[in-house]
Amino acid sequence: MSLAAEWNRFGQRSRGLRVSDPRGPAQRSTYFLHIPYRLGVPLLLLSVALHWMVSQSIFFVQVVGKNSVGKWFELDHLTESDQITTCGYSPLAMLITLVILVVMVGFAVALGFRRLHPGIPMAGSCSLAIAAACHVPKGTSQLLAVKWGAVGDESAVYGEGVGHCSFSNGEVESPVVGRMYA
Predict the structure, then answer these.
(1) Strand, helix or coil at 3?
(2) Per residue in 32-89, pLDDT tens?
(3) Which residues touch 143 (CB under 8 Å, ≥6 apart)?
(4) DSSP label at residue 35
(5) Where are its TM segments located (predicted)?
(6) Could you give phi then psi for residue 145, rounded to 5 degrees?
(7) E strand or H helix at 46
(8) Burial class (CB within 10 angstroms; exposed 0-12, middle 13-18, buried 19+) of 30
(9) In degrees to the nearest 10, what's the CA dihedral of 16, 121, 154, 180?
C-alpha cells in the first residue's frame, strides 16, 4: 500500500528518487523500515506489544508442594505426586492480544481505503511496468527530481501513433485516454 502511494505521487509532481545512497540535490534516502515512519513506528510498536502479550497468554507452570510440616520438598527427592507441571493461561492477556490484532487489521483496512490520484497506472512491484517507466528520454538525470508522464514524440521508435510514458526531468504531459503507449 505504501509502495502504491509512493509510485502514485510521481504522477502528480516532480519528486526525487528514493535511493540507498543519495548523491544528487533531489535524491532522497530510503526508509529505515522500508515504509514511511508514520506507518512503520506504530506497526513496530503494535507488533512488539502483540508478541509480548502472546508470551503472557500461554505459559508453562510448575507447582511444587510442601510437606505436612510446611517445609518445601527438596528438588532432589520429588515424586510425581509432589509436583505438577502444566500449561497455564491468562484470559486477560488473551483478550488484550485479540484487541491488538483487531487494531492491526483495522490499521491495514484503513490504509487500503486511501484514495490514489488518477494518472499513473498501478504497477505494484511488477518489474515489467517499472522497467517500462524507467526507459527515460535522453538527457534525463536520475540526480534531479523526476515526474512520470507522456514524453516527447517517439513515433520514430515505437511506430506512428504510439507514444511513450516514462520518468523525466523535462516537461511531461498526462497520457491521453485511448492512445497507445509503449
Answers:
(1) helix
(2) 667 788 888 898 999 999 999 999 999 998 877 666 666 666 655 666 666 778 899 9
(3) 23, 24, 25, 26, 27
(4) S
(5) 43-65, 92-113
(6) -65, 140
(7) helix 37-57
(8) exposed
(9) -170
- Please give the grid coordinates belonging to residue 91: 484470559
CA dihedral 130, 135, 140, 146 (to 10 degrees): -20
41 is written with which cell numbers?
513506528
Residue type, 164: H
Q: What angle do CA 142, 143, 146 make, to 5 degrees?
A: 55
Nearest to residue 166, comparing CAs of 143, 138, 124? 138
Contacts of 58 (CB under 8 A, 6+ apart): 87, 88, 89
The amino acid sitting at 52 is W
pTM over 0.70: no
| 112's grid cell | 487500503
